[in-house]
Write a structure and sequence with these properties.
Number of strands: 7
Largest sheet: 7 strands, mixed
Strand order of the largest sheet: 1-3-2-4-7-5-6
Order of helices and strands: EEHHHEHEEHEHEH
Structural class: alpha/beta
Number of helices: 7
CATH architecture: 3-Layer(aba) Sandwich
Strand content: 5-15%
Length: 270
């Protein structure tokens, strides 16, 4: 398996690994790098950028045989937005944040959008290979979300609105993939996470409306089950960026341990 440390640096777009399994993990908001000609033109400071990215999601999928990790920041190009909205040009596209000191040129936009195009071209080819080998596959589209948006000392979002794990399924044929999704949710809910059970619910904080799951279900309607998995940032301080490595290790173990469950459920459908 590839060592992530070999794939860091501003010149790297993404890293991939292929192995003997129909289960794939992606971390498309893990990246923090921004290409040099854009970085100096950003109005948004680095801490603010990091707060809305999904750090450590690459670590959570590290033990999967098949994984895709995007290394660029979502503030350069957001792969989980449709192409025409993938570059945040106005504050309302980016949680009210002013990203750029001045409007980006057409050339700047074209360069970023070319990366969006290249990624989805790569993704389709990658998944075609898995499909050819196994007939069907599951993508765990791993993300994370903030729950203390009003400040480090603020009251967190009410638990009723913020499950530990939010499963997004809105773009899939839910009835077809029920054996896979239900098995995964049951496994996560029953998992011993540092001495407690996790709150796992479907389509509460997010519904799985991102571009990647939509793309997969459109291109692979009979063979691709893409599950949007949003971890509440219970594994880090969302304001300082400091990780809780014990929690990250536990989530990494959860994802790794889910593979045989997912493979077994996938055989029911396929």
């Amino acid at each position: 398996m590839l060592d992530d440390s070999e794939f860091t640096g501003d010149h790297v777009w993404w890293m991939t690994s292929r192995g003997a399994s129909p289960i794939i993990g992606t971390a498309i908001h893990n990246g923090h790098a921004v290409r040099e000609n854009l970085l100096s033109r950003m109005a948004l400071h680095e801490d603010g950028r990091l707060r809305e990215e999904d750090p450590f999601t690459a670590e959570i999928i590290h033990d999967l045989a098949n994984r895709i990790v995007f290394q660029r920041s979502r503030f350069e190009i957001d792969l989980n937005r449709a192409r025409d909205a993938a570059v945040y040009q106005r504050p309302e596209q980016a949680w009210g944040l002013k990203v750029w000191r001045e409007a980006l040129s057409d050339a700047d936009l074209s360069e970023s959008l070319a990366l969006h195009d290249a990624y989805y071209g790569m993704l389709e080819n990658y998944l075609r290979g898995v499909e050819a080998q196994y007939g069907a596959f599951v993508v765990l589209d791993i993300h994370s979300y903030n729950h203390r948006r009003d400040g480090a000392a603020s009251t967190p979002t009410a638990a009723a609105d913020a499950p530990d794990i939010n499963i997004g399924t809105i773009s899939m044929d839910r009835a077809r993939w029920a054996p896979v999704v239900d098995a995964f949710m049951d496994f996560c809910a029953d998992y011993d996470f540092l001495g407690r059970r996790l709150d796992v619910r479907e389509n509460v904080a997010f519904q799985g409306r991102g571009e990647q799951t939509r793309f997969i279900h459109e291109r692979f309607p009979a063979s691709g089950c893409a599950i949007a998995v949003e971890f509440k940032k219970i594994f880090m301080d969302e304001w300082t960026g400091v990780p809780d490595w014990q929690a990250i290790s536990a989530l990494r173990s959860l994802i790794a341990s889910s593979v045989p469950v997912l493979e077994s459920a996938l055989r029911e459908v396929a």
